[in-house]
Amino acid sequence: MSTETKQTSSATATQGRRQGSGGRNRNRREEEAADDGIYEKVVFINRCAKVVKGGRRFSFSALVVAGDREGNVGVGYGKANEVPESIRKGSEQARKRQEPIKLKGDTIPHEVLGEFDGGKVLLRPATTGTGIIAGGGVRAVLEAAGVQNVLTKSLGSNNANAVVYATLDGLRKLKTYEDYKRLRS
Question: Residue 37: what are its φ and ψ, rounded to 5°?
């Protein structure tokens, strides 16, 4: 086999591998609206098929997280017959449902376990420089909330809805030193 043949065969092999995303991050999209500074991320898109007389009818649902990266975060779930429409509906809902989260600098005040349905997420504060040690839906929620240093572990279900809402539940349970001081006095 000559060197020219080797080079062309390796070039076609790499071209073949480069097509498509290989399944990685294909259901994730992130964008930041220039007008209002709200960070949005599509966590999961689900396709549902309904069998009818003429064949199959597809509908889509999108789980979207939105936040201002300064302590406010919301989650939305949109359903429609096309993907862009479901994302738009989910993002509108996420923007409407934003709620404040208690933070301590760039991390969370204390360790907490969030639960929702079968999903359980452990959130643990971390020192500066650690970054967000999380995956999938947990990372999306924490980035949108503005947390920069945190350690996480998903302990229950790996269903995207359950994990995202469990993370949100954990963030809702957070209390600062001032909150505890107010409760005691």
Answer: 70, 20
Q: How many CA atoms lie within 13 A of 50 on its CB side?
A: 6
Exposure pattern of 118-142 as b/e (b: 16+ CB <10 Å)? ebbbbbebbeeeeebebebbbbbbb
Domain contains 5: no
DSSP assignment letter at 118:
T
Considering the entire predicted model, what is its pTM? 0.80
Per-residue pLDDT tens over the stretch 40-51? 999 999 999 999
pLDDT in tens, 96-132: 999 999 999 999 999 999 999 999 999 999 999 999 9
Looking at the domain assignment, is residue 157 inside a domain? yes
Q: Which CATH number goes with the domain that contains 129?
A: 3.30.230.10
